[in-house]
Amino acid sequence: MKFLKVLSSLLIIFALSSAFTMGDEKKGVYVAGVSASFADSLVYFTDVLFVDSVELDKDKFLPFRYEYSSQLQDYMLQKYGSANRTCFVYFNQNKAKLEKSLKKLKEKYQKSGKSQLRQVDSSFKFKKAVGY
Question: How much is the pTM?
Answer without folding.
Answer: 0.76
